[in-house]
Please model this.
Amino acid sequence: SDTAQARLMKLIPRILRAVADKADALDILPRLFALLTRIGGRSVYLALLLENPPALDQLVHLMAASPWIAEQLNRHPILLDELLNPRSLFAPPNADELRLELSSMLVNVADGDIERQMDELRRFKQINMLRVAAADIMDVLPVMQVSDHLTWMAEVLLDEVHKESMRELVQRHGTPLCVVDGQQHRPGLAVIAYGKLGGLELGYGSDLDIVFLHESKGQQQETDGEKTLDNAQFFARVTQKMISRMTTQTPAGVLYEIDTRLRPDGASGLLVSSLSAFEDYQRHHAWIWEHQALTRARWVAGEPRIKAAFEAVRHAVLCQAREPQSLRASVVEMRAKMRAELDQKDPSKFHIKTGEGGLTDIEFIVQYHLLANAHAHPDIVRWSDNIRQLADLATAGILEAYESAHLAEIYCRLRDRGHRLVLENRKTLIEAQEFEHERAFVREVWQRRMEPSASS
Model:
């Protein structure tokens, strides 16, 4: 329109002045012009930037600092509204505030309007991801809090998707019921997080490693509606519905990529298991690497009743007595296989996660010592995140205090560097000398504690 054209002509000189004194102006301008191309026909966005100079300043600053943020704004221009309120932009909400915000965004979505709901969930994530990234770039949030906020966001969204998927299936098939010892029960479904989500270490581009468990058992395990389903089938459909709502590509994008391969029997296993079947698998059929993964597992959404039951199973499995030498050999062998498949072959480069002396080495050191000692020190498996696990290993006298503290510090530094690389739209592959001293320490601990015979 003529109005949009006139506003664009006024805006361009202001943008040029705003970037003129920046050393990387030639890198920033293409990002800004890509956004202007995207919003050029939308007069309201141009007016927003013209009439709010602080918003324009914020835009230039954020797009200069992070190509990732520039990409998000280009994909979803509706996020420009967030620039109007720096107070909320640089102060991401906590878990309770996130729940309230999501509820307010969904309050006007009609029941059954799945498409609108999916779009609102994605908009909620994009808005809050921008807030976290902006606070991260401005050094308002340390790395641990960045991951906390990203983790809370995922938990709130998982809980909402679970609630709506359950509601839809109950409307169609009735409520799942079962009879145990002559008493009728209403079993539920829970989401168990593994990996980065389980370990409270979610990043900007992380997918969600999750497992679904239900608590149905006993007799008469079926729904009470006209279109009756047995409970196992009912919960499988709920799970499929949840995955579909999160992974479907809409105009607003994908909510999360989902990985369920850590479930019992992996990709060939049932999509959702009963808690009792999960316990039997973990006790009698799981590989050592699956118990390593279990050290980072926790309940995150769904039926709250299942949380305590899952934690009891996890605790019992992790606290089984294990023969230290064979356990260590299994852990070292698995790490060697991963290095052969994933490690960077160029010695001048270092992959922050999988490289020698990187995040995975620290995680494997922690997991071995947890599994080897939990039978005698059960408190060391109470948490699912590496930092508190390292602290508990030191408290129990299993690791030296200096080892624990330095490994935790290195772990946080590597994660922080990884976050920044994502915001710069770069791979987590860096020059090997950047963390040379830190990697040397991790390698020394690995050799001394994981492969002592090789270093003697």
About this structure: The beta strands are 176-180, 183-185, 189-193, 208-214, 219-223, 258-259, 272-274, 298-302, 349-351, 429-431. DSSP finds 20 helices and ten strands in the chain.
